[in-house]
């Protein structure tokens, strides 16, 4: 078996390079002695990996290809997820034992047993492609600053297998995927088709695939503020307001043609020199020679207050200007980016950049064939030209009908469109709604969104772009409440963002719903203080205990395994509660000759007494999980549930405590 040879090769390299060194290792990684206390153990990383890989090879944990288990997804930025300060000097580096302290493909294998215990059967990896070191926002490159779509980032290489080579790096990624597959875990990657690093490798071959500005305009470059228009996603109704603005005309004047069109002979000389002398920072050389540079990126939302995305630029998907913008443009207007260009799904063009489209469409099949990935999240796919988006989705599915596709669609009202395009789920915005429980948003999202979805949505109170869940409320109940909630909300797939399981506080990015204060939630002496994982070298606080979380998750997994209907799309029925309020709601699932009934109070401060009716005969109630019992007694079930539910004329009444979720098994009452 060819794929098995990857793990065997890694095993050989680990044995060959083994060193007799001991270092502190988080207990979560210390296979086979995983515990969730957060204690740090002394261990030899070589020996841990050798033992684990031997076990994986000897005991094929692989599930049936038609795995009946419902999805539980873990989101990971490998650089951070399995980073650790082994020498305790407060920074991540190669330490004296030649151990890379930032995360690597190889060390991610050590986390697989822990993730499997958490019920994870799909890992969503933030970009693993080669990142640019130019225009960094922090001490590390952003994974979204893609320098080469077809190369892995060398920072994921682990010195434990010897000196770096691209062949060894590929081997390590293949081995991670093989190990995951053998443990019944699928791997999907983040795919970035709309943007690229400012110094993407393709520039030397295809400078016309990028947008260029005058170098002396760089400090003045900023998207125009359009008076009279709200902060809103672009639509064609705003075209006249955008282009009639004098600020827009000034903005357009910053753009220029690509350097090969400015002086073709000089461009050919530069490309030859870069290749001959292997000049890494060729964008600086282009700027010095032609006085131009690639245009920084920015939001496609009109009047968005976000700062410039200085580390990325947009790919030129069309060779012409938007049709509706042409009447407002000068005849010699160079290619430019503006809201309508960036949101090309809502604009009209006549000349697609077909070679670029083909290049983008070939990327996912490349990763399928070479590394055996199982799926992808498409970054901002809904902003692409629909024809391009369809082709990107179609090619990997044609190769593997089971290829999993996730849309970065935050608006749950667009799930029908995502389904038509071929996606299997969307990201959604439950992370925002759950933080606003006080306004009744949890129930509102259930009633208005979840009940009407065409595709499943991520069930999570945080993502890599949002504030951390643990910082959303001072009430400790909120963290455990949403843990249970997101395992059982209808039409959702439980999603655990890396660090959620150990109550990580520091956000990974300031992209959505964050403010400047979120940067400074840790003590000043903490090495992660003021840092963001997407732009800095950070690590998770693996010393935090996860014992309570894991016990609760284990119970949730047992219930989902015992009642598979809970994970089926659109298999639930809404049950009305009386009197109506903003916070309480309930739903049930048919199961054999009974039901699984879930009743929720989403208010963290108030109790409510509610009544409900269950169709059919009289019912016996068996408690499967009760968050109130967990909060108060660290028990899972309410053994006195029958005494708490009052019955009158086939109407049942119950008092719901604050942040209480009851999961009940209803079976017919036999007189």
Please describe what this structure looks like.
The protein has 671 residues and is α/β, with parallel strands linked by helices. Helices cover 29% and strands 18% of the residues. It has 22 helices and 27 strands. The strands form eight sheets. The chain has an eight-stranded parallel β-sheet with strand order 17-16-15-7-4-3-19-18. Strands 20-21-22-27-24 form a five-stranded antiparallel β-sheet.
Provide a short characterization of the protein structure.
With about 675 residues, the chain is an alpha/beta fold. The strands form eight sheets. It has an eight-stranded parallel sheet with strand order 17-16-15-7-4-3-19-18.
List the helices and strands and how they pair.
Blueprint: H1 2-17, E1 23-26, E2 40-43, H2 45-58, E3 73-76, H3 78-81, H4 105-108, H5 112-117, E4 122-125, E5 129-131, E6 146-152, H6 166-182, E7 186-191, E8 195-197, E9 212-214, E10 232-233, H7 239-243, H8 246-252, E11 255-256, H9 259-262, H10 264-277, H11 282-290, E12 292-294, E13 301-302, E14 312-314, H12 339-342, H13 354-361, H14 363-371, E15 375-378, H15 386-399, E16 404-407, H16 415-421, E17 425-426, H17 430-435, H18 441-448, E18 457-459, H19 477-488, E19 492-497, H20 547-562, E20 573-575, E21 584-591, E22 594-601, E23 608-612, E24 619-626, H21 627-633, H22 641-644, E25 646-648, E26 651-656, E27 661-668
Parallel strand pairs: 3-4, 3-19, 4-7, 7-15, 15-16, 16-17, 18-19
Antiparallel strand pairs: 1-2, 5-6, 8-14, 9-11, 9-12, 10-13, 20-21, 21-22, 22-27, 23-26, 24-27, 25-26
